[in-house]
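Try it yourself: sequence plus zinc ion, in.
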Amino acid sequence: MSPRRARRRGPFERPDGRVVRPVGPQVAGVDRVESAHDGEWVVRNVSGAAQGKAYRCPGCEQEIRPGLPHVVSWPAWPGGEDERRHWHTACWRNRANRGPGRSRY
Ligand SMILES: [Zn+2]
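Structure, out:
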């Protein structure tokens, strides 16, 4: 077996062939659309394992360390992918729960 895999495996399939089921309702690698007070957002859970670089979370202005599972979101309209942002999972939830009228933006 070559150490380099020619084909991408599913997100929960490990090199030893076992499939790891995610715990809870959030499934990594699957996009979902969430409605927020400022529109609809596509949200993707990412493991962070393959990114190899740090991002800055717009919610708390702190770095998202490489390898830390987090979410990527962007506006759910054409071209919205250009606005992709990486968020800590908790910060994204806090943003979504902030609700209309209480936003500081
Ligand atoms: Zn954050």
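One thing you can check immediately is this: The longest helix spans residues 89-98.
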